[in-house]
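Late entry, written up from scratch paper. The run itself happened at the end of the previous shift, but nothing got recorded in the book at the time, so transcribing now.
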Amino acid sequence: MTTQAKPNWNWSGVAPLVFDNDASLRGLLTMLPATKSDPDEILVSLVQLGARFRRWLHQDEFGPTRQQQTAAVRALMTTVQKLQRQFANCPPSLRSRFEMHLRDGNNPSNTVLEALFEAAMDLEYSLRKTDAPNFHLMWARSLRDFIERLIVLSQVIDTNADGEIFFVAIKRNFNSSAPIGINFEFAEAERWLTDYWNVLLEAFDTLGEIRGADERASLKLLIEQLCGLWERETQNPVTAHGIVEDVYTHRPVTTAGRFIAAAVEAMLPNSSWFADRPAKSVRAKTFLLDHQVDREHQVLGFMRDFVSRREEATDKADLLKD
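Output as recorded:
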């Protein structure tokens, strides 16, 4: 029986740019057959790239899995749905009272959720003072609890899932943090919740549409940068194959390939870094220190992609000249 993934609450992809092993990169300079820039300038570029690579690893391969991100978005959707039902089940006699608190106690600079929470708190307090029916008090209390939960979840969702929601929201022209303005009413709150639900639903569907093995995004980006550095500095095109004396080796064996494979190994974090970030997926395990063979196979594949795209671009350019 498959265990359902749980959200990775409070996880952040924010990480400092740190690379603490410059000496490991200095040896790479001897692997460049020629250089356009001063060696110290190239070393600075490699150090900066190594620091970015570690942050990419933290954000992507060692961040929340796709299933954990989906679980987090699902939790938000569940809470929004409960809040929508609570609005729909509002006793008619409470609607005008809630709107009064929403209007009179509203700070125009509040977000929608902040304004709704304050209005729900004020309503509950006023109902207690007037000895209102218990079911009125229960409605107001549940409303307050659902709003508070939605606020909390939106603040602790992992930054990767939140980023997916953010991109969908931009596309739909929805801003959950926009100030509420004046004359905000009950019906507008319901429309806002519907818009928010649709954003979450699209983000959920987008995460669910991704199928198959996850691409080693951090490694691919690193290879792209290293291939570009090689071509800029050596003024020679990157070549990529794994054949030695008619035998396929599954590893890059060209001069450029050996340089790039060595750079990848030199830029990997140390064992203590991995100890703090357990590998939760096959793609994450690719970067563990004892998986060099798997890594070299991936390096060769990404280098081939780079060469193929460059050759395709060159062919198109030649056609345009003709």
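The mean pLDDT is 89.
(Scratch paper discarded after transcription.)
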